[in-house]
Amino acid sequence: MSDGYVTPDGRTIGGKVLEMRNITLRFGGVVAIKDISFDIREGEIRAIIGPNGAGKSSMLNVINGFYHPQEGEIWFHGEKRKPMKPYQIAKQGIARTFQNIALFKGMSTLDNIMTGRFNQMKTNMLAQMLWKGPAAREEAENREIVERVIDFLEIQAIRKTPVGALPYGLQKRVELGRALAAQPKLLLLDEPMAGMNVEEKEDMSRFILDVNDEFGTTIALIEHDMGVVMDISDRVVVMDYGKKIGDGTPDEVRNNQDVIDAYLGVDHG
Amino acid sequence: MSANVLPEGLDTFPKLLARNATQWAKVPAYREKEYGIWQSWSWSEVAEEVNALAMGYVALGLNEGDFVAVIGRNRPYLYWAMLAAQAAGAIPVPLYQDANAEEMAYVLEHCGARFIIAEDQEQVDKVLEIQDQLPNVEQIIYYDKRGMRKYDHTQLTAYDDVQAEGRAGHARLEPVLKERQAKLDENSTCVMLYTSGTTGKPKGVVLSNTNIIASAKASSEFDNLNAGDSVLAYLPMAWVGDFIFSIGQSCWTGFCVACPESPDTMQADLREIGPSYFFAPPRFFEGLLTNVMIRIEDASPMKKKLFHMFMAHAKKVGPDLLDGKPVSFGDKLKYKLGDLLIYGPLKNTLGLSKVRVGYTAGEAIGPEIFEFYRSLGINLKQLYGQTEASVFITQQPDGEVRADTVGVPSPGVELKIADNGEVFYRSPGTFVEYYKNPESTADTKDAEGWVATGDAGFIEESSGHLRIIDRAKDVGKMADGRMFAPKFVENKLKFYPDILEAVVFGAGRENCVAFINIDLGAVGNWAERNNIAYASYQELAGHPLVLGAIQEHIAEVNVSVAADEMLSGCQIHRFLVLHKELDPDDGEMTRTRKVRRKLVAEKFDDLVSALYDGAKTISTETEVTYEDGRKGAIKATLELRDVAVVPATKEVAA
């Protein structure tokens, strides 16, 4: 497995993009993540699942630099990553969405997705205010990338609608759009399907698969809905009480006794 | 029948396209909004694209006389796919894009298409699902590459790749095209269109070059359409009207066809394009007016007052101004002011400010709705047509526009009314035949070329205009012998914004009863304004206040029906509001949203009986099909209500 593998549907998965080695994260006396190691490979859809409070979101926050683990190492593209600020990590090509939607409610869909391009803009604020030469050109270039994202996610009809006026399912899609606009190498999705109905979940699953297929983006996602996770991901990490209790293909995980116990509930004593 | 109605050298589409590419080389022919920007192609560019695709078809093995099925929403590429089929000596067959796999299987099997042009993954999936029933299908060409990477490409080819192959082999393929095109003439088949069919299976209507080009020519001249005009193509490509407007008239006059960015953005795109020539079914105009009224209800009191004041004035003088009738100076001045403050901005918001010629057809339009648009200064007219006539049978000339007629015979069309009231016509646009269906052809078209429309109507003596009463087969008798014309009553009901659809029963019965579908947009907004809580369509449809409002509407309709001597027996005695919307997915309507009366009567048999046996409520369960094809059931208890009718004695006295 060290040099990648081929998925049942014929995609070739490459080497390690991100490797978490013996990560431990504590908040005071509370241990959120306890000595967890796993890797994310190029081109794969990697899921992190587990019951409530298992430490899934904390793990995502460690990956994108919101939290700094007390122990353990993070290796990114074969290099050990120094402690960084989230924006520095974003510049390395890691984008994310949030569990409880973090968009600018009063801004339009278009403007919200444009903010995803912020890190790629080089001209200064004064030039942008004057709207001349390089600044105008730069905006046009970025707008084109954003328009392709809008087309991809089929949200042309809400291009100019304030995000606050949109239904929940569409807001989730806009948030995915903002993350995609950054053209990430690694996309982190925090419960992309939480609170959605069956149809919206199917749409979102299709978009996630299409992003992976179309742009070759590596995706790590946290999800509650076991059905969806098993359908779309290549490999799954299962967490429970901050520990890793399973790691493998959906089938392997499904038959893992520890995982079954965690989900169906046994005495943890 | 009518030989040589077409000018020399312009009797096929490849010839028209070649003329346009020289005559209007730089004039925009097609536009489409993509990535937020309107892209456009001039006639010379279109000719090149079509030519490349046609050569690609030939390279892939398309034969002369083959049928090429085209499935997708209105996009320039798909129009070119049809023009390219013609350029390669084949016959395009556009299909309804929202048809499900079984409906599609029937049509594809019937025409035996070897080539299928599908817009995207969704359409390709549908074809692949039914492929084992279709031994004839050899090539599926798709435009949108998204999600297609992992498919088995032994029979799949991307549109771009087909064009690239055509361009690469042009030295070899160009002569083949030339040779094939030389064999085409005005009698060659131009297109085959499947009728939606309110009864039975769809029929393939074969239309020749004469049919399409002569109709396009006559109708373009009727309304002075020219290369400076523009249309928005948003109606199904499988519908004859879209073929006539977006291919026929466009190629004939050289005007520009704009395609919306996505089906949901149609309204915004309409506003950006501001077409000068516009077609929409009455349903569209009704929906638009309902939206305007809802928004006015929510506007500030000042705006509301201004709107109502100027609309009242527009109603008074607007239609006269449009018809060029004399209007006093004061009224003209007030109308100008109204135009500045209300009509102009409103038309702009609706995207109709540049409309020079607007048509509505397919169903009757409510007089108030019709007058509303005309009073704003929009030249909205009615036409009457069908696939078998290449659209045009009658249409209204400028200055003779009325809500209750469908106009005078279109240029070149002869009309006659049979003894039973059925309308017959004969014209250069009259179809060749139903494909592989000589019996139906013989039933519809006689040896002299007269075609039965299936509609009952009469020609008004004073004006020469045709008036349509109903479908001839739906016009029946009630138990006591009085005339029963359901559509006549249904149309009156549908003119109320609350009522989306109505189905009236009464043939062979003592009196008439009706099913009503409420309009969720209008009624929902009304509920919101009156603090009426509801959780679902079903709950709103069953609300006593809603039933009360509908009851009042029906009572008003009864009064108006009673005034018509012939049809006074069609007053509605009892009604119910259906717990679900009639839906094409459940087979209750055609894809063009016409009610399948018989099927509805059979499906809701229990409800019809309840209306006649005097029950106060009824519990029922109905099977529904969801968009993805799964089935479910809705249970409901419906309330049945009586409506006041105008007593028969009064009508005897009158």
Q: What do these coordinates show?
A:
The complex is a heterodimer of chains A (269) and B (654). In chain A, 37% of the residues lie in helices and 25% in strands. Chain A has 10 helices and 12 strands. In chain A, helix 3 packs parallel to helix 6 and helix 5 crosses helix 6. The two termini of chain A are 35 Å apart. Chain B has 654 residues and is α/β, with parallel strands linked by helices. Among the domains of chain B are: 248 residues, Rossmann fold (3-Layer(aba) Sandwich); 178 residues, ANL, C-terminal domain (GMP Synthetase, Chain A, domain 3), CATH 3.30.300. Chain B is 40% helix and 22% strand. Chain B has 22 helices and 29 strands. In chain B, the strands form 8 sheets. A 5-stranded parallel β-sheet of chain B has the order 4-3-5-6-7, with helices on both faces. The C terminus of chain B is likely disordered. At the A-B interface, helix 5 and helix 7 of A face loops of B.
